[in-house]
Design a protein that fits this description.
The protein is mainly α. It has a domain of about 60 residues. The chain contains four helices and no strands.
Length: about 100
């Protein structure tokens, strides 16, 4: 189905929020891909769909933050404390049997 056809089917739908999933299934793409196509083509999305996406972003942001914290803890543990590369100012991460330590 072309982007134009997707937009027409969306616009003509009685329940546009439900139509997002229907179009995704018909085109074998994600719901987010359908939303991308609609936004790109200037279609107005239901506020419910927009709110769902923002709520999902909030959840993902919290998960990323938590995993980032865990990642940094593991790096500190493996390095015996954070060490910075003097040239780049970035944290170094040493792996392996110790052969690659400075």
């Amino acid at each position: 189905m072309t982007e134009r056809e997707i937009c027409i089917m969306y616009r003509e739908a009685r329940n546009q929020n439900t139509q997002l999933q229907v179009l995704a299934e018909l085109n074998d793409v994600s719901r987010n891909e359908i939303i991308r196509i609609l936004v790109k083509n200037g279609e107005k999305l239901p506020s419910r769909a927009i709110n769902q996406l923002y709520k999902r972003l909030d959840v993902l942001e919290a998960q990323i933050s938590e995993r980032e914290k865990e990642y940094k803890e593991i790096v500190r543990a493996l390095n015996g404390g954070e060490k910075q590369d003097r040239r780049t100012g970035k944290n170094e991460f040493y792996r392996g049997n110790g052969d690659n330590k400075p």
